[in-house]
């Protein structure tokens, strides 16, 4: 009798769960998902956890296919030549194929004092550490959010809507991803919530102390709680295991999401760097890349050439508290357009619907693997890629 094909998935985030579920569509494949936490973390809700409106957790039973073996542990090393992984508990798991979906987390702040005195928010543990600190701060205490991206905007809005005194320090630009028209609309909403927004060359943080934030232009902001949302990083597991990574530590792959070092290793989500042109780190891209990574493994098991991955974006949906939000539309290549929507309750409901639909998609893929192929297509991506040997790239001239 033929032996089952063993596939290990490292990481139980959006991409890892989608990949694991997709793999169960083929008989004879044993799937093991290794994740350090016993519950799924809705990272897109962590600002709500800090504000107290959601716990950002989902039981894996809701979103993971029954055929997936779930192991709560942390992978500490990948032995690619030996096709096995070692875990923090001392376990060793052999594999025929490996999906690397370790996700991303907060970048270590290099600003003096930030590591010691600021709180980060990009992981469950960080949000859980921050939540009681915010709750214990006096109602009139000054809260400072550093970082003008979507996480900073959502966190500042969430806290300000509760009546907190919030300053959002953006560095040079508020919402750098947004179109200028959308950026102005966000600024107006933040102003209505009472958020003080600081941007421009002088609004760069130079030091964080226990009770203050110092800026490049010499200003010192009183800050009872400083929340640091600037920058993301990826775990160094691939690099420590001797695999090729990009400058940020993402696993380098080809367009089929296969490691440039080993055809038995496939990457998905924030920790993947296909063709050294990774797509934006986001739930939106992870939900698309995850099942495609699973399809790459299934194709290799079947002895077929895997298809190139294809991820397209629709834009970005940002909550502005529980009662408002904004949708910034984008082209499939993630470049923004002038079009955006900003409103009150309807947009807040839309954002909530997006969050719920993500969990729904995970659960549907668990119950009907292969059902969801709803991702957008960026048909122009190949124009930016180096030509393969003997191949001309459409749309490019010599």
From TrEMBL:
Highest taxon above the source species: Bacteria
Domain FAD/NAD(P)-binding intervals: 6-288
GO biological process, one term: aerobic electron transport chain
Keyword match Repeat: no
Protein name per the record: NADH dehydrogenase
Pfam families linked to this entry: Pyr_redox_2 (PF07992)
Cofactor: FAD
GO molecular function: NAD(P)H dehydrogenase (quinone) activity
């Amino acid at each position: 009798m033929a032996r089952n094909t063993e596939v290990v998935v490292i990481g139980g985030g959006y991409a890892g769960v989608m990949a694991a579920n997709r793999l169960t569509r083929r008989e004879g494949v044993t799937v093991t998902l290794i994740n350090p936490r016993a519950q799924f973390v809705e990272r897109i809700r962590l600002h709500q956890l800090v504000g107290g409106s959601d716990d950002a957790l989902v039981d894996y039973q809701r979103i993971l296919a029954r055929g997936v073996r779930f192991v709560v542990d942390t992978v500490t090393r990948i032995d690619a030549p030996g096709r096995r992984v070692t875990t923090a508990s001392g376990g060793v798991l052999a594999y025929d194929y490996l999906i690397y979906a370790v996700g991303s987390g907060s970048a270590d702040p290099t600003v003096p004092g930030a590591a010691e005195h600021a709180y980060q928010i990009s992981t469950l543990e960080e949000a859980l550490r921050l939540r009681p600190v915010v709750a214990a701060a006096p109602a009139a205490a000054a809260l400072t959010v550093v970082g003008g991206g979507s996480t900073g905007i959502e966190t500042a809005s969430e806290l300000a809507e509760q009546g907190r005194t919030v300053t959002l320090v953006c560095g040079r630009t508020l919402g750098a991803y947004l179109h200028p028209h959308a950026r102005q609309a966000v600024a107006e909403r933040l102003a209505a919530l009472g958020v003080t927004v600081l941007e421009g060359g002088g609004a760069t943080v130079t030091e964080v102390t226990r009770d203050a934030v110092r800026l490049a232009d010499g200003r010192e902001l009183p800050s009872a709680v400083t929340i640091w949302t600037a920058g993301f990083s990826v775990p160094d597991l691939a690099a420590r295991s001797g695999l090729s990574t990009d400058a940020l530590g993402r696993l380098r792959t080809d367009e089929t999401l296969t490691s440039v070092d080993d055809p038995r290793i496939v990457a998905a989500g924030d920790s993947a760097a296909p063709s050294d042109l990774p797509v934006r780190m986001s739930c939106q891209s992870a939900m698309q890349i995850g099942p495609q990574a699973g399809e790459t493994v299934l194709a290799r098991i079947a002895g077929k050439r895997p298809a190139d991955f294809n991820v397209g974006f629709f834009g970005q949906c940002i909550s502005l508290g529980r009662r408002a939000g904004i949708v910034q539309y984008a082209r499939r290549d993630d470049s923004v357009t002038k079009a955006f929507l900003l409103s009150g309750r309807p947009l807040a409901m839309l954002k909530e619907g997006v969050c719920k639909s993500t969990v729904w998609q995970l659960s549907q893929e668990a119950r009907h693997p292969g059902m969801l192929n709803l991702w957008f297509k960026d048909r122009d991506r190949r124009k930016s890629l180096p030509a393969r040997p003997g191949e001309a790239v459409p749309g490019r001239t010599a």
